[in-house]
Amino acid sequence: MNFHSLPKRSLVIWEVLAVVLFGAGIFAAWVLIPQSLLIWYAVIWLLGALFILVAFLYLPLLYLSFSYCLSDTDIIVKGGVVFYKMRFLKRDKVSFVSVYNTPLTPFLKVSMLLITAPGAHLVIPFLAQDEADRIADALNRRLSSHDADH
């Protein structure tokens, strides 16, 4: 089985979102907490330490751990940092496949692929837009040929 990883662009997007969120947190602390209080310094140090852990440890480990595989019989998605999990879905059980695009998709070129079966679904986030479309087309072709057989 050949496992594929997410594009590097997804890690960059996660890092930019982390910078924006932590910047908003620091701005909120600057506005809401008087700067002469000791708690202001504690909040800033705590936000800084949390940012370093998330941006330089958690997000890169999450990026490295996330992968997916499309075999002839199964769809496998695995990943996680603290709780590593592998999710399996039989290809013949797939009900429908959706590709979700956001208003930023034309700029970022990433989409989310949602594969649904009765009682289960798999999500592959931040997948390259052309790869998501290719996988969705292949699964939909197989789904329509499977429906024509029955």
From TrEMBL:
Domain of life where this protein originates: Bacteria
Keywords: Membrane, Transmembrane, Transmembrane helix
Keyword Acyltransferase appears in the UniProt entry: no
Domain YdbS-like PH, chain residue ranges per copy: 63-138
Bilayer-crossing regions: 12-33, 39-59
PANTHER family: UPF0699 TRANSMEMBRANE PROTEIN YDBS, UPF0699 TRANSMEMBRANE PROTEIN YDBT
Identification of the protein by name: PH domain-containing protein
Species in which this protein is naturally found: Massiliimalia timonensis
